[in-house]
Write a structure and sequence with these properties.
Helix content is 11%, strand content 37%. It is mainly beta.
Length: 427
């Protein structure tokens, strides 16, 4: 019988095949990574910093890792996300362009050839932003009150808890000064400032509050009006070191409440040597435009202007003119003097033939004409104006005059019987 032998080559091949099969059976298939979402730090109104860690790459290279977030739970890469490198281990990122005062959900993510894995979910809330407000123009100014308000541009991502205006005689008023408060309302709000001092300059700002901030709008300046004995109100203006009425006087009573005679007849007017007034053309409709025309005997009472104010002297008119650029030598001359000081005192409207002024002084002179001492007639309406000043002699009083065609200021003296306007200056 033939001997049954195993061939050496066949044995070796079989051994190799069995070993290979055994080795392959020990290799694990790759899986998605395993990772953790860390803590959120450095939270601001629109950004935050987040950390994560890949503890197991799943047996395949981590090709992308990072964070995804949103305002709903379980955010994915379909939401906002940011990549932060590759490979296993710890990693961090800063996320930006977030909305203030908003709850966010965030998870770390990692990708390998198998797929995308997400870490545990973490939440955080961004900070509250500063609101924004603008101050609305001041209106309704009286001697003791005014109306102001604001427009809320942005609430900072939180409910508005207070709004109003604050004011002071010093710049940059805040809630340590006088203020109003309105807790409810729309984006536009108004408030009335009360208990103001007459003829006083105030600084005013709107403000708005949320739970984290108090913010102020831009600063505006208002000047309360001056009231005379009858309650007529006058705008005032600071010119250089002086404070002037920016309107002509229109009271029919002296400061002691005694009545000034209203004289309409021309013949009666020109022979007066006692206080008198009239309206332009004897029509009261001109009262609030030009004020009243007075003879100089009314000025001489010393009681025509409101308390704390007086009819300007000739020298005080010179101070005004020099503050507008007239030289001292020019101011002491008579007739037309200076350069453009008259234009600076004339209103920008109301003058005939387009001869308005620049009114850079705020004096706001209007062409109310005058009442002539010789005939009692009304002249110069729309073309010129006069203001009384101090006494020149027993027969004459100083005055100032502006004309439409002229840019300078006229200084002279004339008969006390003339009818001219009055601008009071503060004591």
């Amino acid at each position: 019988m033939a001997e049954n032998r195993k061939l050496p080559g066949l044995f070796l091949f079989g051994s190799f095949l069995a070993g290979t099969l055994f080795f392959n059976s020990c290799i694990k298939d790759p899986t998605i990574p395993v990772l953790n979402t860390g803590t959120v730090t450095d939270i601001t109104i629109n950004s935050a910093k987040i950390s994560g860690e890949i503890t197991d790459d799943g047996g395949a290279e981590v090709t992308t890792r990072g964070f995804c977030w949103g305002i709903s739970t379980n955010p994915t890469m379909q939401d906002d996300f940011i990549a932060s490198g590759t490979g296993p281990g710890e990693f961090t990122s800063s996320i930006t362009q977030l909305e203030p005062n908003t709850l966010y959900f965030i998870r770390a993510f990692a990708q390998n050839s198998v797929g995308t894995a997400y870490g545990n979910e973490v939440t955080f809330t961004t900070g509250i932003a500063a609101p924004q407000v603008t101050t609305r123009p001041v209106s309704g100014i009286t001697a003791t009150s005014a109306i102001c308000g604001g427009t809320i541009i942005y609430n900072g991502g939180a409910d508005i808890t207070g709004r109003g205006v604050c004011w002071s005689t010093s710049p940059d008023p805040d809630l340590g000064d006088s203020f109003t408060t309105t807790y409810t309302g729309s984006e536009v709000f108004v408030a009335t400032m009360t208990n103001l001092l007459p003829a006083t300059k105030y600084y005013v700002r709107a403000y708005v509050k949320n739970s984290a901030w108090t913010i102020y709008g831009q600063q505006l300046i208002l000047t309360t009006k001056l009231a005379d004995i009858e309650g007529n109100l006058y705008a005032i203006v600071n010119i250089g070191t002086q404070v002037w009425m920016a309107e002509n006087l229109k009271t029919t009573r002296l400061r002691d409440n005694s009545q000034i005679a209203n004289i309409e007849g021309d013949a009666e007017w020109i022979v007066l040597s006692t206080p008198a007034y009239c309206w332009l053309r004897n029509e009261i409709q001109y009262k609030n435009v030009y004020g009243a025309l007075y003879n100089w005997y009314t000025v001489s009472t010393g009681k025509l202007c409101p308390s704390g104010w007086h009819v300007p002297t000739d020298d005080e008119f010179k101070v005004l003119e020099q503050s507008l650029g007239m030289t001292s030598a020019q101011a002491n001359l008579t007739d037309w003097r200076g350069t453009d000081q008259g234009a600076k005192m004339k209103s920008t409207t109301g003058w005939a033939d387009g001869e308005n002024g620049t009114n850079t002084s705020g004096f706001s002179g209007l062409p109310g004409g005058y009442r002539w001492a010789k005939t009692g007639a009304f002249n110069g309406i729309g073309m010129l104006t006069y203001w009384w000043s101090s006494e020149n002699s027993t027969e004459y009083g100083w005055y100032r005059r502006l004309d439409g065609p002229e840019s300078a200021v006229f200084r002279s003296a004339t008969s006390k019987e003339g009818g001219k306007y009055i601008r009071c200056v503060k004591d």
